[in-house]
Design goal:
The structure holds two protein chains of two kinds.
Chain A: E1 7-16, E2 25-33, E3 37-42, H1 48-56, E4 63-68, E5 71-72, E6 83-86, H2 98-108, H3 113-126, H4 142-154, E7 160-164, H5 172-189, E8 192-197, H6 200-206, E9 209-214, E10 217-222, H7 224-229, H8 234-239, E11 244-254, E12 257-261, E13 267-271, E14 283-287, E15 293-295, E16 302-311, E17 315-321, E18 327-333, H9 336-339, E19 346-350, E20 357-360
Parallel strand pairs in A: 3-8, 3-9, 6-7, 7-8
Antiparallel strand pairs in A: 1-2, 1-4, 4-5, 9-10, 11-12, 11-14, 12-13, 14-20, 15-19, 16-17, 16-19, 17-18
Helix pairs in contact in A: 2-3, 2-4, 4-5
Chain B: H1 3-14, H2 16-49, H3 53-57, H4 59-65, H5 79-91, H6 95-108, H7 112-124, H8 136-143, H9 150-159, H10 166-171, E1 174-177, E2 180-183, H11 191-222, H12 225-240, H13 243-254, H14 259-266, H15 280-304, H16 309-316, H17 321-349, H18 353-358, H19 366-376, H20 380-405, H21 407-410
Antiparallel strand pairs in B: 1-2
Helix pairs in contact in B: 2-20, 4-5, 6-7, 11-12, 11-15, 11-17, 12-15, 15-17, 16-17, 17-20, 19-20
Chain lengths: 362, 414
């Protein structure tokens, strides 16, 4: 993907306030590239949905500018923006059949009936809902409603499709299946998708890029692997995936490696790349459960007591207690060694310095 | 016994207690409805066709006539009938019964009242003994010679059965003649106009309520909580003031030297006061005000249940908000439009006090005449027949609405 050349939508210094007092969006600059699958990820109230609504035309920015293909669109009403949208509760019209729902955007475009019928049929094929054409939305299962909503947003072949937590109402298995289907459709149609979710695993699975929203700002934007492997703030590190956090005092930094002394006299090491060359009073060391490896207890390794073991099938979660209340969760493969671990025993553990990120704590 | 049957039996047995409880819970309402709603309506239906006056007053005569016909001019009843008539007059327990019969016979042809009452007074002074001698027919002819005209006996015969279509036909400006059912003479045709006027006033009022109420309900749904409460209170206000107080207040505002006319004349908008009350304008203004809540509340209720993202969805698919309104919003409010308008229509069609107070004679509705026949002329048959016309009219509109909107929708179910 040629990112610089194919910017489709550009947010420049966008601010949004609903009450004239506080900002919901503080200062948003964001480029959306043609054909990408961009996820806006964040907790509720982080500004992700507001951003989507501004893009759709249902809210207007208080300050700043949104451009599409270089042209400002703040004053283009929603119905002229030509973006497909999938709503949280699908918003299928209950008084229309599936076919009528699918024909609606075409009817609004004053397309003639024969062409309309062809496109509706194609959309039905695309989401595999044969035989459901004459049903009312209420007669469909959640997954089928979801498919109709998807088809309806795509049937008029928009360049951009906006999705506002579209899978929130589905159960886990169906959600995973639909994630896959949406991803397939995105690949086959080459359409640009802007997807809002609060579910970080959904964001990682589906997206080309993820923008993590935090309190009205983008905390970090990048590919799923970048966010997961190289989070640039403690918030992102904690929000994406599971993490262990150890709080301590940085003793020294050498060769990009920060030595941190924890309460209780243990010293651990982590990457200093996020400290930007200066030494704060306190740091958080963040490390993922699967990056910690259990070893024999020896002089060179860290040591801890096994307090609990949770069997999860393909892997095992081991709870460790370090000196002085510091706790860690470790995720290990389900093999002979880990099965032999006993609660109350002392084990050694280690991690690669590059996998443990030290962030200044304020 | 196969397995499914035994299951059904077992289910029936195990849910008996539940059914008993349901029946017990319903019992008070069912008995209340039966006694105070179904029974009176049944009685009203009965009153519209029941025709007891002549049988009560002249049981022997009616018996003696016994389906004789008086088609030809020469036809007159035999002496036995006249004798029976004399007996009935003499043995009449009270003048009241005779009076009812006189009034009833008078519906057939005005003038019969005096005939009956004169004859009754004549026989009140006589005793049984006079029946022994002479011809009853001649005695009656001497009292009033109309007793020996076939047309009287034909009318008497028609008025005498225990049940009559007379009132129901009269409510539709029809009457029974020897030639069959005919329209009454043009100058007597008032009831059909009355019914049509009632339906017209109710329709105009419910349509006006819809035109005023729809935007109001839509605003109430969209407005902030505070404005929503203020508007709701304003709409509900007519419910909390006495009907008479409200109507009188409107008279104060709308009369010739009332607030509105004074204000308009001060402002120089008009030179002469405009007639706003004691005519149809007044009736419409006041009735719309009073009945607005009946339209607004069901509408508001339905609109509140329409998620705002439907309209957004329509816009996202390229629908201009106005087209979205007609294709999405309006169809979804049909339930509320149907039930609100129907409710308003039904209540308006039965209105009585307001048109009486703020309308002229030309705005009086069925309700007024039902009260008139009940209280003033004590013509229960006519009052009941008009009541049936009212119920039938409302029922027709109801069926029409059920046909158009669906019965579940009107009941507020989706």
């Amino acid at each position: 993907m040629n990112k610089t050349a194919d910017t489709l939508i550009q947010f420049s210094d966008v601010q949004k306030s609903y009450d004239g007092k506080s900002l919901v969006i503080k200062n948003l600059s964001l480029s959306i590239f043609k054909g990408e699958f961009l996820t806006l990820l964040g907790a509720s109230g982080s500004g992700k949905t507001t951003t989507l609504m501004m893009l759709a035309g249902f809210e207007s920015p208080t300050r700043g500018e949104i451009r599409m293909r270089g042209k400002p669109i703040e004053h283009v009403p929603a119905h002229q923006r030509g973006m497909g949208m999938v709503f949280q509760n699908y918003a299928l019209f209950p008084h229309m059949s599936v076919a009528e729902n699918l024909a609606y955007p075409l009817k609004m475009r004053r397309m003639d009936r024969t062409e309309r019928d062809i496109k509706v049929k194609r959309a039905i094929d695309m989401v595999q809902l044969h035989g459901m054409e004459q049903r009312r939305p209420t007669e469909l299962s959640g997954g089928q409603q979801q498919r109709v909503a998807l088809a309806r947003a795509m049937v008029f072949e928009p360049d951009v499709i906006l999705m506002d937590e579209p899978l929130g109402a589905l159960d886990k298995n169906l959600r995973e299946h639909m994630q896959y289907e949406i991803k397939q459709l995105h690949r086959s149609l080459g359409v640009t998708v802007v997807y809002v979710t609060h579910d970080q695993s959904e964001a990682l699975t589906m997206s080309d890029r993820v923008a993590v929203f935090h309190k009205g700002d983008i905390a970090q934007i990048g590919s799923p692997s970048t966010l997961y492997e190289r989070p640039n703030t403690a918030y992102v590190a904690n929000f994406i995936g599971e993490n262990n956090t150890l709080t301590g005092t940085p003793a020294l930094v050498e060769n990009g490696c920060c030595h941190i002394s924890l309460a209780g006299g243990v010293t651990v090491k982590g990457s200093a790349s996020h400290l930007n060359g200066y030494l704060p009073k306190q740091v958080e060391l963040i490390i993922r459960p699967e990056k910690i490896r259990l070893t024999e207890a020896s002089e060179t390794s860290y040591r801890a007591v096994v307090t609990d073991k949770v069997y999860l099938g393909e892997h095992i979660r081991v709870h460790l207690q370090l000196a002085n209340e510091h706790k860690l969760v470790v995720r290990v493969a389900n093999d002979q060694a880990s099965r032999n671990l006993q609660c109350g025993h002392i084990t050694g553990f280690r991690w690669d310095v590059a996998d443990a990120h030290a962030f200044p704590l304020n | 016994m196969d397995a499914s049957e035994s299951l059904a039996v077992a289910h029936h047995r195990s849910s008996r207690r539940k059914r008993m409880v349901s029946v017990l819970l319903l019992l008070p309402l069912v008995s209340y409805t039966a006694v105070f709603f179904l029974l009176p309506i049944g009685m009203m239906l009965y009153r519209a066709v029941s025709n007891p006056e002549l049988i009560d007053a002249f049981p022997r005569t009616v018996q003696a006539l016994n389906h004789r016909s008086f088609d030809r001019d020469a036809d007159l009843p035999e002496e036995t009938v006249f004798k029976a008539l004399e007996q009935d007059f003499i043995k009449a327990t009270s003048l009241g019964v005779i009076g009812d019969a006189a009034r009833r016979l008078n519906y057939e042809n005005s003038g019969y009242r005096s005939l009956i009452m004169t004859t009754a007074r004549y026989y009140r002074k006589r005793t049984q003994t006079i029946l022994q001698a002479g011809s009853a027919r001649e005695r009656l002819e001497a009292v009033d010679n109309r007793w020996t005209t076939p047309v009287l006996w034909r009318d008497f015969q028609r008025a005498s059965p225990a049940y009559t279509p007379y009132y129901l036909l009269a409510a539709l400006d029809l009457k029974q003649t020897p030639e069959g059912i005919e329209r009454v003479p043009a100058h007597q045709r008032v009831n059909l106009d009355l019914t049509l006027r009632t339906l017209k006033i109710a329709s105009i009022v419910s349509l006006s309520c819809l035109i005023l109420g729809f935007p109001l309900a839509a605003l109430m749904v969209k407005a902030s909580r505070t404005i929503q409460i203020v508007l709701l209170l304003a709409v509900m206000l007519p419910f909390w003031t006495s009907l008479l107080a409200r109507t009188s207040a409107w008279i104060v505002v709308l009369q010739e030297k009332g607030l509105l006319n004074t204000l308009l004349m001060r402002l120089g908008v008009i030179d002469q006061p405009i007639a706003l009350i004691f005519n149809s304008i007044g009736v419409y203004i006041v009735m719309v005000h009073i009945l607005l809540p009946f339209t607004v509340l069901p509408l508001y209720n339905v609109m509140k249940g329409i998620p705002s993202h439907y309209m957004r969805a329509s816009e996202s698919m390229g629908g201009h908000p106005i087209r979205g309104f007609f294709y999405v919003y309006l169809p979804l409010t049909l339930t509320g439009i149907g039930s609100g308008t129907l409710l308003t229509f039904i209540v308006a069609a039965g209105y009585y006090v307001t048109p009486t107070l703020v309308g002229s004679a030309r705005e009086q509705m069925l309700g007024y005449y039902i009260a008139f026949y009940t209280n003033t002329t004590v013509n229960w048959g006519m009052a009941s027949a008009l009541g049936i016309v009212l119920i039938a009219g409302v029922l027709m509109v109801y069926l029409l609405a059920a046909r158009l909107v669906g019965i579940r929708q009107i009941a507020g179910l989706r």
